[in-house]
Amino acid sequence: MKILIYSAKDFEIPFLEKANKDVYQIKYIPERLTSKTAMLSLGFNAVSIFSADDVSSKVLELLYDFGVQYIAIRAAGYDNIHLKTAQKLGIKVANVPEYSPNAIAEHAVTLLLALNRKVILSNQQVSNYNFSLSNLVGFDVNNKTVGIIGTGKIGKVLAKILYGFGCKIIANDIYEDQKFAKQYDINYAELSELCQKSDIIMLSVPLNSHTHYMINSDLIRLMKREVFIINIARGAVVNTSELLEALKWNRIAAYGADVYEYEHSLFFYDRSKTKPDDQLLQQLIDLPNVLITPHQAFATKEALTNIAETTIYNINCWQQNKASKNELTRELVG
Question: Structural domain tally of the chain?
């Protein structure tokens, strides 16, 4: 089987090579999968894509025409792929559902602590030999009420960490795990109640039709003015324009995110010499109470190992005419 890896990053290639063990012929290219780059898949049985790749119906039809039978997603999320079209075309798709919930959850807490304790500003001041503490006052996370929206694998790790901090945890999810909630003293609540009561709000939900723009001006009006919002879900879970207005007018205290609504073609690339004309992103970056990281939460050795090994596992299953346990297309109905 010949495999084309789209959006290949220099830091992940060694992990993929190690997992492959010289079994498959793999070609790595830095280009994103789009309608313009789909033709590069000609001659390959399988392609592997990442979260910034475009796997819309149009692109899937092109891949099908070029002979692609399998798509291995090197991520848990699959909101960028039209699964029904893939199933219709007979293209099998599999993801990496749990490469490291710890990596993502730990990064969320890193964003919270860095924002709260003004770590970036502190480092800048010390670099200039300014040792004043006047701008560096934060708060104890202990005993704060934290609202976790989404208690899947990542949300559960978040809950465990914050429980260790001594936080009061409330949660919102369409599936309430009462056994887990009892173990970590978590109270499930309606979204509006969670927004009203939380000092800190953590977003860890997948992006779909129900969660798109979940955080908007209506919900922001219910929140405390001192609230910190941390987003390690997807950028479009938040209405960025409405969030930006709330930040400008001090309607919320701070925003930390490892994602951005319009990150496609920006994140994972060095744009320092070709600065994008994205005024929304620039305004976010310029705000002192915002901390944005470039979708790096997954970038740990453990997570990259799991991603590579699971990606090759999925391909192994297809090579052996077996269904991968991570296959997404076989789960669709209709």
Answer: 2
